[in-house]
């Protein structure tokens, strides 16, 4: 999972930019919104699919304080929960407009591991408010600019050359090294938006190999249906114990009896949650030595076939130990 932090002071246009980023790239996004108030507003806006939308966003909201300070432990836990359950290709983190970007980045660095990559942070800056906010909210505002590796100037369409030049000089005094985009981001091509998703922290470009699960097989299955929840439990126990191959990741949703359920498998752990009825049922399995025919047989046949039907008692005991771990 790659994490892209998109910062900016109140009203700079972060939410609008995130929608454009999702539309231009069509990538697998989840978005963590840090709303600094009792009621979250941006989450419902982001989750709306506009006429030009090409990506459905999975929105997570934190509304009980700022992720750069008072709720940083909850923030870290939420990031790990998203990584271990949803596991999107990209997680977009939108801090509150009055948060310190440097502290948000520091909090994420503390939980980085081989499956989490921190991308170069972006700050959206309202050019009209630059002088005022720099004077009135200097500590927070300057931090958001100085800690950014890409700065996008917004709301300056139609400004004359002298105004833009003066603004650029002021921004450069606070951050001389960032990639500064004075032209509105909507004028950029799709390759530029893709570049933001492959720009590692400190500016290095991530190699294509870092985007792939090298050497692993994957299997997509549709048309799934099970008669009752016990069958799904037995199936998932088979998945985590290696019955269907060395599966390191699996997720899907299907009708089980009269309900729809979603399952998610990471390593040797699985979760089951209820969801609203979907138009179709599907699942994906990623790992080594996948027993493709058996996976389809168990999930697609009307007649239930237990995945542990050929196991000896000793083998079943060994697998149970693995599951309990």
Q: How would you spell out the order of helices and strands?
A: EHEHEHEHEEHHEHEHEHEEEEHH
Structure summary, number of beta strands? 13
Instruction: Detail the poorly predicted runs.
Output: 37-45, 50-55, 208-213, 308-325
Radius of gyration: 23 Å
Work out the strand percent: 15-25%
- How many helical stretches? 11
Overall SS class:
alpha/beta
Sheet bearing the most strands, described?
A: 8 strands, parallel
Distance between the termini: 24 Å
The amount of helix comes to 25-40%
Mean residue pLDDT? 80
Shape: elongated
Describe the structure.
The chain is an alpha/beta fold. The chain has 11 helices and 13 strands. It has helices spanning 14-25, 42-47, 72-86, 101-109, 130-136, 138-146, 161-174, 190-196, 229-240, 292-300, 313-324, and strands at residues 2-7, 29-34, 58-62, 90-94, 117-118, 122-126, 150-154, 179-181, 217-222, 246-256, 259-266, 269-275, 282-288. Strands 1, 2, 3, 4, 5, 6, 7 and 8 form an 8-stranded parallel beta sheet that branches. A 5-stranded antiparallel beta sheet has the order 9-13-10-11-12. Helix 7 links the parallel strand 7 (150-154) and strand 8. Helix 5 packs across helix 6. The longest helix has 15 residues, at 72-86.
């Amino acid at each position: 999972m790659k994490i892209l932090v998109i910062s900016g002071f109140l009203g700079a246009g972060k939410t609008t930019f995130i929608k454009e980023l999702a539309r231009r790239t069509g990538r697998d996004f989840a978005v963590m919104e840090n709303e600094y108030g009792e009621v979250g507003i941006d989450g419902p806006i982001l989750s709306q699919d506009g006429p030009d939308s090409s990506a459905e966003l999975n929105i997570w909201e934190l509304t009980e304080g700022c992720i750069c300070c008072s709720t940083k432990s909850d923030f870290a836990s939420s990031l790990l929960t998203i990584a271990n359950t949803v596991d999107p290709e990209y997680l977009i983190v939108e801090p509150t407009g009055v948060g310190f970007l440097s502290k948000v980045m520091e909090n994420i660095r503390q939980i980085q591991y081989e499956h989490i990559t921190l991308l170069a942070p972006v700050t959206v800056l309202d050019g009209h408010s630059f002088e005022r906010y720099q004077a009135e909210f200097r500590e927070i505002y300057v931090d958001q600019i100085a800690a950014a590796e890409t700065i996008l100037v917004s709301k300056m369409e139609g400004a004359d050359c002298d105004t833009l030049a003066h603004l650029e000089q002021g921004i450069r005094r606070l951050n001389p090294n960032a990639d500064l985009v004075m032209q509105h981001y909507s004028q950029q091509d799709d390759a530029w938006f893709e570049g933001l998703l492959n720009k590692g922290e400190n500016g290095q470009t991530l190699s294509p190999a870092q985007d792939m699960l090298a050497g692993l097989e994957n299997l997509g299955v549709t048309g799934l249906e099970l008669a009752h929840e016990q069958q799904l439990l037995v199936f998932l126990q088979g998945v985590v114990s290696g019955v269907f191959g060395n599966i390191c990741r699996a997720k899907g949703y299907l009708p089980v009896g009269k309900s729809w359920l979603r399952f998610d498998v990471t390593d040797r752990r699985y979760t089951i949650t209820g969801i609203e009825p979907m138009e179709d049922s599907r699942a994906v399995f990623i790992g080594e030595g996948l027993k493709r025919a058996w996976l389809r047989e168990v999930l697609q046949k009307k007649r239930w076939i237990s995945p542990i039907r050929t196991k000896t008692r000793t083998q079943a005991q060994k697998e149970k130990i693995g599951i309990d771990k």
